[in-house]
């Protein structure tokens, strides 16, 4: 008899990203905090979320809003105390949910004691914990590598007369992961949180962790366009995705495997064929190398269809897929594809095979909020002001209610709210069965109750035009998903077989419960989830 496969929580579940500065402020300082998150757990549970990933909450000078960490095993007072964290973990677990933390191993803050020691003298025992190099003979940087946040990736240290490497801000020096002491120190950090009972990590910029030892120059990018980040002038061939990275990731995984059922998610922006290598040999690398295709691809059926199929085909045997619709670094889905199409995107995310990760507020259709120049806070925006790269617009406070500041804070919110928050918020949408929030919730609940949708097989269905079509199937049930990625009406003409079934969820609920068969007409921006008769 065939062995029934056992699915783990991070395979069948749904992950929700909380950007803690912007979720819920409990103490009135205008910045979200851990107590605030606790207050809102029932909402997440109501929605059907099974795991929460919280962006960094550690002590940090906040040069990059928490991604510059000065103590890996503490809590920033802005967010609370360690006892608040312990309470959060307990409350999450009491609701039968999981808590995933952000691990930022590539770089520390320049205020981290490790770096303060490292920069204190050339013969300090921690000198080799970071990437220090001599200037070229003419005093120039060791090579041409660029910082993701603009300018050179090398910073000159006057006192010890060497350069150090920083892939991001100069306040975020990169650790030297070839040094076993660094590895041990970070593995201990992981154990510190895993011992507390944290259910996993989202590992920041995993593909950056090793760099070419010979420091070879990166080649210029022939496709560079001036509107893009200055970082894109070069192809980061020698500063990212280096040989040896998979051994390192496998070592991190071994630490995870000292514990039961923890998850390691890798933040990796690479093409599919490189991305899937991060599952590691025999799937002993990252459990989920984040798949950002829905965030980065042009929004048209042909492109997305071919990438879904390429991804499905490229996954290693036993490698579990995943999909992301947005995060704190990218424009929000509603701002990329429009309000109506955002519902189609939600249906796509929640019906594809693989763990979905949602970004807070997307379930309301929150839009990017234009931030006036004198209020911009994100260093990426400030460093390249003419390029429109600020991430602030996608990081604005969660819109809870029509009350002052959308119920986010009694104080002055750290980023402004949009004018429409009185209409677009949780309270209003909870009372409206036609809202985006209810649409998300119904998709989530259906996914959680139907094996076909959560763990079932995926098969593309051949069609032409602007529709994305596929089935999800498990024993006893098959769903057909039809998504019109354009604003115009179109007809689904199945090319190989006739489908008959009942619409279970539709972007326009009026279509639900109707029986369809043969050619199926779709409105613009319409998505249909159909339970097939001949399952
Ligand atoms: C990751 C984070 C981003 C941060 C960067 C540097 O890409 O998601 O927010 O700025 O790493 O840590």
Automatic annotation (TrEMBL):
Coiled coil (residue ranges): none
Region called Disordered, residue ranges: 376-403
Gene3D superfamilies: Glycosidases, Oligo-1,6-glucosidase, Domain 2
Keywords for the protein's UniProt record, in alphabetical order: Glycosidase, Hydrolase
Listed GO MF terms: alpha-amylase activity
Domain of life: Bacteria
Record keyword Hydrolase present: yes
Residue ranges of every copy of the Glycosyl hydrolase family 13 catalytic domain listed in the record: 17-395
Entry-linked InterPro entries: GH (IPR017853), GH13_cat_dom (IPR006047), O16G_dom_2 (IPR045857)
Gene Ontology BP annotations: oligosaccharide catabolic process
Keyword Hydrolase attributed: yes
Ranges annotated as biased composition (Basic and acidic residues): 385-394
Pfam families assigned to the protein according to its UniProt record, in alphabetical order: Alpha-amylase
SMART domains noted in UniProt: Aamy
Family: Belongs to the glycosyl hydrolase 13 family.
Name under which the protein is recorded: DUF3459 domain-containing protein
């Amino acid at each position: 008899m065939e062995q029934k496969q056992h699915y783990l929580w991070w395979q069948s579940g749904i992950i929700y990203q909380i950007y803690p500065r912007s979720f819920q402020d409990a103490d009135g300082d205008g910045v979200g905090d851990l107590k605030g998150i606790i207050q809102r757990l029932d909402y997440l549970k109501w929605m059907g979320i099974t795991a929460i990933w919280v962006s960094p909450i550690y002590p940090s000078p906040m040069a990059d809003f928490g991604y510059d960490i000065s103590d890996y095993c503490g809590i920033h007072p802005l967010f609370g105390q360690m006892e608040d964290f312990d309470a959060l973990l307990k409350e999450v677990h009491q609701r039968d949910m999981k808590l995933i933390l952000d691990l930022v191993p590539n770089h520390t803050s320049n205020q981290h004691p490790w770096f303060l020691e490292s920069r204190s003298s050339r013969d300090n025992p921690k000198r080799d914990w970071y990437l220090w190099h001599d200037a070229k003979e003419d005093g120039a940087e060791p090579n041409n590598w660029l910082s993701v946040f603009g300018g050179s990736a090398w910073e000159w240290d006057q006192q010890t007369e060497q350069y150090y490497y920083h892939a991001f801000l100069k306040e975020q020096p990169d650790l030297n992961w070839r040094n076993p002491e660094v590895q041990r120190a970070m593995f201990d950090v992981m154990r510190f949180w895993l011992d507390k009972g944290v259910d996993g990590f989202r590992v920041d910029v995993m593909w950056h962790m090793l760099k070419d030892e010979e420091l070879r120059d990166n080649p210029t990018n022939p496709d560079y366009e001036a509107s893009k980040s200055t970082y894109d002038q070069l192809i980061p061939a020698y500063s990212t995705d280096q040989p040896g990275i998979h051994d390192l990731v496998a070592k991190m995984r071994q630490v995870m495997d000292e514990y039961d059922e923890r998850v390691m998610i890798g933040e990796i922006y690479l093409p599919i064929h490189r991305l899937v290598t991060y599952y590691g040999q025999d799937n002993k690398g990252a459990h989920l190398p984040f798949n950002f295709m829905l965030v980065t691809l042009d929004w048209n059926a042909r492109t997305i269809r071919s990438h879904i199929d390429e991804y499905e085909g490229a996954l290693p045997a036993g490698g579990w897929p995943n999909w992301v619709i947005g995060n704190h670094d990218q424009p929000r889905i509603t701002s990329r594809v429009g309000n109506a199409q955002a519902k189609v995107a939600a249906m796509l995310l929640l019906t594809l095979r693989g763990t979905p990760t949602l970004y807070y507020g997307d379930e309301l259709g929150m839009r990017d909020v234009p931030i006036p120049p004198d209020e911009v806070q994100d260093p990426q925006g400030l460093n390249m002001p003419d390029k429109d790269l600020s991430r602030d617009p996608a990081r604005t406070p969660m819109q809870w209610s029509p009350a002052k500041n959308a119920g986010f804070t009694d104080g002055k919110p750290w980023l402004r709210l949009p004018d429409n928050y009185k209409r677009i918020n949780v309270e209003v949408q909870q009372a409206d069965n036609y809202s985006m929030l209810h649409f998300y919730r119904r998709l989530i609940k259906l996914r959680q109750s139907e094996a076909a949708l959560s763990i079932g097989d995926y098969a593309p269905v051949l069609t032409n035009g602007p529709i994305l079509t596929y089935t999800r199937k498990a024993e006893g049930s098959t769903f057909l998903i039809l998504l019109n990625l354009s604003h115009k009406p179109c007809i689904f003409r199945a090319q190989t077989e006739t489908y008959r079934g009942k619409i279970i969820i539709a972007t326009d609920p009026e279509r639900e419960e109707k029986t369809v068969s043969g050619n199926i007409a779709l409105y613009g921006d319409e998505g249909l989830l159909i339970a097939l008769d001949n399952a």
